[in-house]
């Protein structure tokens, strides 16, 4: 399998959807000019809003979503595989799906993934998140077949649930993506180590495009969009400002890492402590 270049975008999305899309598109065009064959965008790339009413007001059904149409056109224009980190897709009943899309160079949607794990946490000092009050969780793992291998999909808080990534790797995924709007509080403590752990556990490349900076309602995200090798090495780190990072991806390194430590083949049955 031949090598390719992957780029992860880092943005500071606000409440103006089309402006956010245009900023992301500018970065994508730059990354494509630098040789990127696969461009990955963060969670909430088109909108960072706060509060259920504002989120529902700005969500749209998939067939009517202006950001999805915009990015499908972009993938055609620059001839690139595009991973659209997530958009807010309005569902029947007034709930929202936090949904990723994989789009091919012809603008066709090749895969959809709805975020499974809801970020319902209290981080202290008034920093509280309740995604389950607005978002409907997905219930299935999803992968997309790319020209270079298989890409396993996830979003942000999913990162803390390693069983999802083990399932993806054992289903043949060579690459994992974790588009995120990770909080600054948790990012400082856990972002790098969790992404490296997921790569090491699975022998996969990990692509993690990210939101950065301050957003509406004083929300702060960590940045540090990362590309991690199957051996757990950080190949690129976008640090704290908007931009993009790029790395050469050699799919042969996936097999090399797994031959050295074939833990995906070493599962053993055991009696669980919790029945």
From TrEMBL:
Keywords: Hydrolase. The keyword Transport does not apply. Residues 4-251 form the CN hydrolase domain. Gene3D superfamilies: Carbon-nitrogen hydrolase. The keyword Transmembrane does not apply. PROSITE patterns: CN_HYDROLASE (PS50263), UPF0012 (PS01227). SUPFAM superfamilies: Carbon-nitrogen hydrolase. Its EC number is 3.5.1.77. It is an enzyme of class 3 (hydrolase). InterPro entries: C-N_Hydrolase, C-N_Hydrolase_sf, Nit1/2_C-N_Hydrolase, UPF0012_CS. It comes from the Bacteria. GO terms for molecular function: N-carbamoyl-D-amino acid hydrolase activity. Belongs to the carbon-nitrogen hydrolase superfamily. NIT1/NIT2 family. This is Putative nitrilase. It comes from Magnetospirillum molischianum DSM 120.
């Amino acid at each position: 399998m031949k090598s390719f270049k992957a780029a992860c975008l880092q943005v500071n999305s606000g409440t103006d959807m089309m402006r956010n899309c245009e900023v992301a598109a500018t970065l994508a065009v730059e990354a494509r000019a630098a040789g990127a064959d696969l461009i990955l965008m963060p969670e909430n790339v088109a909108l960072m809003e706060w509060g259920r009413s504002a989120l529902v007001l700005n969500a749209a059904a998939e067939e009517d979503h202006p950001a999805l149409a915009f990015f499908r056109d972009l993938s055609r224009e620059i001839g690139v595989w595009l991973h659209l980190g997530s958009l807010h897709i309005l569902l029947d009943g007034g709930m929202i799906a936090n949904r990723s899309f994989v789009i091919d160079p012809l603008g066709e949607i090749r895969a959809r993934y709805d975020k499974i794990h809801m970020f319902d946490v209290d981080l202290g000092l008034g920093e509280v998140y309740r995604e389950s009050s607005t978002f409907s969780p997905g219930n299935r793992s999803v992968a997309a077949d790319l020209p270079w291998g298989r890409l396993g999909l996830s979003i942000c808080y999913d990162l803390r649930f390693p069983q999802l990534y083990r399932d993806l790797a054992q289903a043949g995924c060579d690459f994992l993506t974790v588009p995120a709007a990770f909080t600054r509080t948790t990012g400082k403590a856990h972002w790098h180590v969790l992404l490296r752990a997921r790569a090491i556990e699975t022998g996969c490349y990990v692509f993690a495009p990210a939101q950065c900076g301050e957003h509406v309602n004083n929300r702060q995200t960590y940045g540090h969009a990362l590309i991690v090798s199957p051996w757990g090495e950080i190949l690129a780190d976008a640090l704290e400002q908007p931009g993009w990072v790029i790395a050469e991806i050699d799919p042969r390194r996936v097999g090399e890492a797994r031959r050295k430590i074939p833990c995906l083949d070493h599962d053993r049955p055991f009696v669980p402590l919790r029945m």
